Amino acid sequence: MSNQRSFEVDVIRMVALIGIGIVNVPFMAIPVTEMFSTPQSSWDQLATLFVEAFFLLKFFLLFSFIFGWGMAIQMQQAATKGFSFTQRYRRRMVGLLLLGLLHATLVFSGDILVLYALFGSLLWCLKEADSKKLLKIAMWMLPLSVVCLSAMVIILAVALEGEIPAPAYSLGGNYAETVLSRLDDWPVTFVALIFVQGPLVFAAFSSGYAAGKSHFFQPGHKAFTQLEHAMPWLLVLGLPLNILFALVVRGYLQTDWLQFLGFIGIGLGAPMLSAVYLYLLVRLARRLTHIPNILLLAGRNSLSSYMLQGVLAGFVFAGYGLGWFGQFGQFALLGIAIIIALAAMLLVGLYAQFFGRGPMEVVLRKISGV
């Protein structure tokens, strides 16, 4: 049962890593102004709608769910082995914060590790809560997400009234220029991440923590059966909300009230579709008989796999690498992102095969005092 549970979690991590790469890589490959404009090519238009409707925020939430689950499992293991988990967890959050700041500056300004450190620290305040309370808190995060997204609309409306200065630095330049570009972008990007992702991160953390406490991945679990029964409603409500969001972001809908509803609706639509993906991946994992060990190791060392995606993308698109920045449309980037995500996983899996753990996991464990 323990091996099956780990296998399911590994599958979710592996798929989530690919999904996160598909979302993140274009932000490192083309100017940010092009990310939120309507592409000229019909293939690029289809690719952007596909990614924003079915990938944006969804796999990030799956990743966050497993983070919360992992906290519960680590606490259970600490109790079984008879050591205090408190100091180790605090040091772990400090480690994630430090790694996140370095990652945001040196690799990718859209880093999620700083968010994880902040909301992971907040989750610690709920360490004694039972599963029911945790799920209630997760549910309350969804209307809070809608409120935050509404505030984001107002902020964007005010910001767009003035003239937006051209970026001083480019991600397509040499390494020093890319670092300066990220330093320039990160404060605004981080505030946007707080509004767009913050409540959803905490919802996923709380529900994942509840899942770990209640042994969600054990076959026949009541919550999994309830999730299965909810599938039709999650699809009927979640798909239109995510498609509407994609149409709004790409400027296909010009009516003000539709734009507003489409934008804030992702606060409900993204968790719904993530829940569908969670159910499908668990079912898939229970049917699979074999996955190459190198990919399983990449999933278990997801911190290294996640960070290496950005490193590889830098070498592909920036001026200190192949210099392909701004040379591909969204359709081509969809395939390139999958290749980069898989390459990162294979490299990390190969490294872990020889050294036991991924390099960033070793660093984090040392910081945590393990």
Q: Could you characterize the architecture of this molecule?
A:
The protein has 370 residues and is an all-alpha fold. It has one domain. The chain contains 15 helices and no strands. Helix 1 (2-29) packs across helix 11 and helix 3 packs across helix 14. The longest helix is centred in the middle third of the chain and has 40 residues, at 175-214. The two termini are 26 Å apart. The model has no long low-confidence stretch (mean pLDDT 91).
Quick rundown:
The chain is mainly alpha-helical and 370 residues long. The chain has helices at 2-29, 32-35, 42-54, 58-81, 86-106, 113-124, 131-161, 175-214, 222-249, 256-264, 266-287, 293-300, 302-317, 330-355, 359-368.
DSSP, total strands: 0
The structure class reads mainly alpha
Mean pLDDT: 91
Gyration radius over CA: 20 Å
Q: Detail the poorly predicted runs.
A: none
End-to-end gap? 26 Å
Coarse morphology:
globular
Count up the domains.
1
H-E order: HHHHHHHHHHHHHHH
Total of helices: 15
Sheet with most strands? none
Helix content: over 70%
Classify the beta-strand content into a percent band: under 5%
